[in-house]
């Protein structure tokens, strides 16, 4: 149980609580998927601390981004990759949105492709969020649903994505730049803020915005997005989460699929 003081725990404290709860699932000898972002970093730090004190041994981690690789190395977690370990025992990562069916939006930090590869290869994928990430339907926060595209002909790909959502009230679409997405900026190494945000895979991100969230069959919409040539992957993680650990001001809730 959290011990609220004054205004209660901060959002960062909630993130840490969720992360530490997830790390209780880590066992010695596991291959771990290492998440990206301000929530996942608490898990990386905790795993590193448990390795240092000998409470965990022989754990190796597959980072979901260059940022996660650097953060995990700083925390002292030995790294490996999906080629060496194609089956991951447990992945722990944050999310931008979680809907009631445990579908997710991820990738506002720009790491959705590697995240989906690592988390999709995991026996168990545990999502760690504070309660601000809960939404009635994906896209309903009004923030971006990211799509990773190849830079070649990106504006044609963007036009095709726009056509797909033609007529959806309040729909908007933008190429992500360091300047247009504050969260992306934290991970962005673009020299100029007005340059396109470049992912770890040297791709661009097109952000989709839905005023009232995404209505309709998410699997169908996913297929239609992925059918556009030039699209690499999108940030809807459908049916991938095994559990979501939600840190709320009044305590932690664990929802299993
Ligand atoms: C990065 C991600 C992150 O997991 C997601 O953006 C959540 O980040 P945070 O914990 O900082 O809110 O998908 O691509």
TrEMBL record:
GO terms for biological process: pentose-phosphate shunt, non-oxidative branch. GO terms for molecular function: ribose-5-phosphate isomerase activity. Pathway: Carbohydrate degradation; pentose phosphate pathway; D-ribose 5-phosphate from D-ribulose 5-phosphate (non-oxidative stage): step 1/1. Its EC number is 5.3.1.6. Keywords: Isomerase. It catalyses: aldehydo-D-ribose 5-phosphate = D-ribulose 5-phosphate. Transmembrane segments: none annotated. It is an enzyme of class 5 (isomerase). Belongs to the ribose 5-phosphate isomerase family. This is ribose-5-phosphate isomerase. It comes from Musa balbisiana (Banana).
């Amino acid at each position: 149980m959290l011990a609220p003081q004054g205004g209660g725990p901060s959002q960062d404290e909630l993130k840490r609580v969720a992360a530490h709860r997830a790390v209780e699932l880590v066992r010695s000898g596991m291959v771990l998927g290492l998440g990206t972002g301000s929530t996942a970093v608490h898990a990386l730090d905790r795993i590193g601390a448990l390795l240092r004190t000998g409470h965990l041994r022989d754990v190796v981690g597959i980072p979901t981004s260059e940022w996660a690789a650097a953060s995990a190395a700083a925390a002292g977690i030995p790294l490996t990759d999906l080629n060496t370990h194609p089956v991951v025992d447990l992945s722990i990562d944050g999310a931008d949105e979680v809907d009631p069916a445990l579908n997710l939006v991820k990738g506002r930090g720009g790491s959705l492709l590697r995240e989906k590869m690592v988390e999709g290869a995991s026996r168990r994928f545990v999502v760690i969020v504070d309660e601000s990430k809960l939404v009635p339907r994906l896209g309903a926060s009004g923030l971006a649903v990211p799509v990773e595209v190849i830079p070649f002909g990106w504006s044609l790909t963007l036009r095709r994505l726009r056509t797909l959502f033609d007529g959806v009230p309040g729909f908007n679409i933008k190429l992500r730049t360091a300047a247009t997405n504050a969260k992306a900026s934290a991970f962005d190494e673009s020299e100029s803020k007005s340059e396109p945000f470049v992912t770890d895979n040297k791709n661009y991100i097109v952000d989709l915005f839905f005023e009232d969230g995404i209505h309709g069959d998410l699997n169908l919409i996913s297929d239609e997005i992925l059918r556009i040539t030039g699209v690499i992957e999108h940030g809807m993680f459908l049916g991938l989460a095994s559990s979501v650990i939600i840190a709320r001001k009044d305590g932690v809730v664990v929802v299993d699929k």
